[in-house]
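yo

u said u wanted the structure for the complex thing, so here. seqs first:
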Amino acid sequence: MIASGRGSKPLHQEVLAPCRDSTAYDLHEPVPSLPTISEMDRAIADIFRGLVKEETELLVSLGRSVTCRAGQIVVRVGERGGEMFVVLEGSLMEMARQNRRESDPPAVYLRGDILGEAPFIVAGVRKKSVMAIEDSSLLGLSVECLDDLVLTMPPLAAKIFRNIAGIVATRFQHEIGCSGTSLPPEYIPLFDAICLEP
Amino acid sequence: MNVLFDKKKSGYRGDLSLVHDSQAFTSEKKSPLPSKVTIATTEAEKEEIYRLRYEVYIEEMDGGRRHTEVDVSKRRMRDELDDHAVQFYVRQDDDIIGCVRVNLRRDGPWECEDRFELEKFAPAYPAQVAMASRFVLHPRARGSVVMMQLSCAMAELLCEQEQRFCFLDCHPKLMPLYSRLGFRIYKPGFKHPKYTYVIPMVLVYGDLEHLARVSSPIVSIARRYPETTQWRDLLLKNFPAAAHTFMSADVDVEAFWALLGGSLLGPAADIEPSDILTGLTEAETKLLVSMGQIVSCHAGDPILCTGEEGREIFLILDGNFQVLGEMSSDDQDEVTIVQLLVPGQIFGETAFLTAGRRCSTVVAMENSSLLVLNAKALDRVVTAEPQLAAKLFRNLARIVETKYCELIKG
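structre next:
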């Protein structure tokens, strides 16, 4: 049973096959002190940000539901896939990659996050492997379905692509060691301030 | 109108009560606030102004590091230019909710005045040029008529004092705002020693044609004084770019598009097709670029600096730029990443999308020109032009994802 937490569920459901890959993590035990992107970033890095209930339901109905168990690998580096996944429930984490700095925590994906978006957005292959930390529910979205949305439901498509761009930009900031969001979203109107310097 | 000006003293006294027609400047704004503009004459009034500045520049905008002149213990922000300035303010109930400072050049030199090339404004320079600065609105006055009222009061005084030009420099995000008042970009920007990259602008009070074209709220004031093209001609003779840079969506979309010469789309384009425009129709491209203003910059100018605030997106029209990023690493505290950006490419998009600070420093490698896309206008496009917005944000996602993939690929 998929529950998006927003009262919606995808029309099609699929349970991922068990994964036999070995992982560096013992997923039967809680993963200690998993770092996550700050709550401030979360407010921006959420594909559902700014969507009204009906829009959320519509988006969820466009995709297929995927259930994965703790320890399963959802996307693998090097794969070609035209599908992007949205986390509806649960949590997932990026698996070790060669060039990640040791000091950097692995990225953790929570509700509203996207994963496997690289081929979806820029074509090519997946750049990371992502594994479920706990039993999780995902929404699989195809390129075609979102492209169609640009023509059929432009207001919804605009919000979704704005949110996807925001998520990717937030990750980019973190990757280059930028401090991330300086201001919470509610402060964005601050930039209306009529302040002339000097 | 009741402005009293004592020419024998380096100060003004009087009361300025204005209720101007607010329609031209408040079409998308909140309800007007009832208010009147006054020139500060007492120390108590000035202290209130300095306190409002402190609240906005230092506390709200986190400007403590930039403004070393502030008095933190007294929560006041004042500098030497206040010694001979005219201070306008608007009060509501017991509080000052907006203020602006005007300095007449004849009363003393300005900060960074060499950057304005004032000598080219002779014979108006030095006796008939003024500078506006420290334009501050309390949050509850933003989007109201207060800014317009302050601008009108300022215009009233400067016209009366036979001032021909009013200068200011501003953050790129404020260019559209000041353009609507009638200010023009007339020369390349510069990195202010204390602040970000700023754009010098000038307003010609006698240029009724331009003020009317931009629907400036001060046009009705300027009309009460003799019309002359002398000062506009002087500006355009010495700074021909000023003839073009006023063109924006607020003025004339077609003229602005003609200025770009279709170089962003046409077969004779002298730049690579821009990724940000991928999939956009000509009409959509025209609309998107009309949200911007063209600015020029000199070789070596740092347009963005790491850590600064700002959400504008910069589309390179001409010239090359260098991106200098800083990141921590295990074996070295800081690594500088150098990337070359060419015409057609953009920068500044990450901070736009995350409402964060700038993550890298971008420097012009040669004399260049940029289209500065206004962040607020881009935000509004989601509701105003959703199909364009969907394509635009998809393109932005692709641009950032491409950079991200390059980065994690190592």
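Chain A has one domain: 12-178. Helices of chain A lie at 39-42, 53-62, 117-122, 143-152, 154-175.
cya
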